[in-house]
Amino acid sequence: MVATNIDPRRYRGVVFDMDGVITDTAAVHSAAWKRLFDQYLAERPHASNEDHQSFRQADYADYVDGKRRVDGVLDFLGSRGISVPRGDADDAAGLETAHGLGKLKDRYFLEALAAAGALLFDDAVPLIESLRERGIRTAVISASRNCRQVLRRAGAAQLFDVRVDGVLADRLGLPGKPEPAIFLEAARRLDTPASACVAVEDAKAGVQAAKAGSFGRVIGVARTGPPSRLLQAGADVVVSTLSDVSVTTSADRRLSEVADAHRCWDEIALRLRDRGLVLVLDFDGTLAPIREDPTEVVMPASTRDVLQQLSRRSPVAVLSGRDLDDVRRRVHLDELWYAGSHGFELASPDGALIAHDVGDSALLGLDEAERHLREELKLIPGSRVDRKRFALAVHYRNVRLDSTDEVLSAVDRIGRTFPALRLAHGRRVIELLPDVDWNKGRALRWLLEHMGLAGAGAVPIFAGDDYTDEDALREIHEDGIGVVVRSAEHGDRLTWAHYGVDDPSSLTGLLARFVSLAADPGRS
Ligand SMILES: O=P(O)(O)OC[C@H]1O[C@H](O[C@H]2O[C@H](CO)[C@@H](O)[C@H](O)[C@H]2O)[C@H](O)[C@@H](O)[C@@H]1O
């Protein structure tokens, strides 16, 4: 199951296609087209270059879905080697022109509509209502001239601030999909730039239109059949039901609910087709398995090998909570970018160092807190104070369970006496960090901007296992691919990841798949 989120802080409008997304009218349209074309092809005298086989479901998706009636007639008949004159709007229904045949299709559609049962998809109203409750404005678009009647018949007209349908498009002279004009008109009427709008579409031509209009995000809806058709057309993500679209500012999926990356490989590969990748990876618990003693952690040689191959094809960075030098030594690959102390210090492959300006009070605070904590915790067996340049970690993995609270409350109490510091929790570790607006998410974005992406449109990929990695997973939730390395250490916690893997060795397997993809980006 693929799920996605619309973050109300990032988007102010959502433009929904109607047929097949909001209303179950695609089947009504499809049946009307089939009735028209089957009848027309059966009656038309045969010619050697023409294909008169009956209208198929795939023809609906390929030639008429989402298009204006006249274009649908011309495109489908054209695919069968048949050309009819365009005609004009006054042509009688059934006349052998695109307008005449389109009018007959409309008659069949209205007959079928009158006989149809419930029209609204059950999953549409809850999503639209939750968008509106959170202040996101909604628009509906349709190439259909019957959009208003369908919405009324479905009882859905009040769900939208704006409607751009076939009637308005004709009046304004807007070209149909895959041109972006109808989508852009909807965004304009929502008073919102397309980049701050999400488009929700089930048709290939519609996805292409929204993409061409530079919508902030294009969500494909494939209620039946594989997502590949819409991913290939440019959808950022494809869901099978609108119930898989949430509207929240916080992560809302549990580790156990995140789809397995290996099982979803075809979908990931399709998304990356013909695009570059840029990888940013956490270290402990992600590239290297967790050990009792942090100083004994070793990254497997097979992982180093895969990272090296990856870095020959795509930019790769390691973004760790460890000290910069520490993580660099353990990974031991000169061609990578590195960020240490949760991103407060960064280094490029040529060795240039960049440190975040955290201010003297934070650095002095870390020095003081270290002194106090070493003194206070020296009598608690198993506790370990680890000073990094921009952080102070207190490990309690080896502390007896009944003394854990003592460690945590000491760090909490001492940390609070330094206003320039904040607390961060990790896997059996609690840390003090400079209390500035910087975290792994900000550092990740900085890296992406400076790593010299292999061409525009490269997809950022981040993998991590811990709470602090969630800032990075959240940062690329909209434009990248996030992978969480699952562990049971924090229970079935919430995550921003799109996919999961079971452990670091499974992540290495996934990275190896990225190697083959980066070697041959056209492959899926
Ligand atoms: O961002 P990361 O690269 O994941 O670093 C986070 C912390 O990782 C290390 O601690 C963790 O791994 C240890 C070794 O396996 C384990 O003993 C500990 O319980 C884990 O929390 C590292 O020692 C810390 O400095 C990092 O902040």
TrEMBL record:
Pfam families: Hydrolase, Trehalose_PPase
Keyword annotations from UniProtKB, A to Z: Hydrolase, Magnesium, Metal-binding
Presence of keyword Magnesium: yes
Gene3D superfamilies per record: HAD superfamily/HAD-like, Putative phosphatase, domain 2, Trehalose-6-phosphate phosphatase related protein, domain 2
Pathway entry: Glycan biosynthesis; trehalose biosynthesis
Alphabetized GO MF terms: metal ion binding; trehalose-phosphatase activity
Enzyme Commission code(s) on record: 3.1.3.12
Record's catalysed reaction(s): alpha,alpha-trehalose 6-phosphate + H2O = alpha,alpha-trehalose + phosphate
Alphabetical GO biological process terms: trehalose biosynthetic process
Needed co-factor(s): Mg(2+)
InterPro entries: HAD-like_sf (IPR036412), HAD-SF_hydro_IA (IPR006439), HAD-SF_hydro_IIB (IPR006379), HAD_sf (IPR023214), OTSB-like (IPR044651), PGP-like_dom2 (IPR023198), Trehalose_PPase (IPR003337)
Function field: Removes the phosphate from trehalose 6-phosphate to produce free trehalose.
Family that this chain belongs to: Belongs to the trehalose phosphatase family.
Name this protein carries in UniProt: Trehalose 6-phosphate phosphatase
